Amino acid sequence: MKVPVRVDGRDLTLSNLDKVLYPEYGFTKAEVIDYYSRVAPVLLPHLQGRPLTVKRYPNGVTGQSFFEKNAPDHTPSWVRQVTLPAPGSTKNRETIDFAVVDDLPTLVYYANLAALELHVPQWRVGEDGEALPPDTLVFDLDPGAPATIVECCEVALMLREVLKSEGLTARPKTSGSKGMQLYADWDCREEPSAYARRLARLLEKEHPKQVVSVMTKAARPGKVFIDWSQNNPAKTTVAPYSLRAREQPTVSTPLLWKEVESCERPDELVFTAPDVLARVEKRGDLFSRA
Question: Looking at the record's lineage, which domain of life comes first (predicted)?
Answer without folding.
Answer: Bacteria
